[in-house]
Amino acid sequence: xxxxxxxxxxxxxxxxxxxxxxxxxxxxxxxxxxxxxxxxxxxxxxxxxxxxxxxxxxxxxxxxxxxxxxxxxxxxxxxxxxxxxxxxxxxxxxxxxxxxxxxxxxxxxxxxxxxxxxxxxxxxxxxxxxxxxxxxxxxxxxxxxxxxxxxxxxxxxxxxxxxxxxxxxxxxx
Length: 173
Hints:
- The chain has helices at 3-10, 13-19, 60-68, 72-82, 96-130, 147-162, 165-172, and strands spanning 29-30, 42-45, 48-51, 57-58.
- It is α+β, with helices and mostly antiparallel strands.
- The protein folds into two domains: 3-82, DNA Primase, Chain A (Alpha-Beta Complex), CATH 3.90.580; 96-172, no CATH class.
- β3 (48-51) and β4 (57-58) form a beta hairpin.
């Protein structure tokens, strides 16, 4: 969960509006501080605000940021300090994109390791066939196979199974 999501879940927007000088009435409406407003046009619903006069809207971070003329990260720091949330904002948090890339890299490594293992197994089988030994393709644990690679492996293994040692020697030269 990102720092922004934590702030949005932890801080009530109406409480934040009151803390930063906006008087919200019992109908969850207020005078908009972002334009010259004489009738309440700033409305709060759920954890968002919307002004029907000037069009301003957003969440608690956007509200504090606009009221205090801050960037979203500065607003997060202000809310964290003001509400004493004790969120460590200095620690870098992994983004979804970084996590996705790490998962892809791990998957590529797993596939590369499997291909190396399958290639070694097939090479070992070829050596046995060239020496006139063995008649069935080697077995690889089915759980670790990726369907496309398994089909390629099986078609290659079946081809090798029918080759005789003499035909393998002819291919090799």
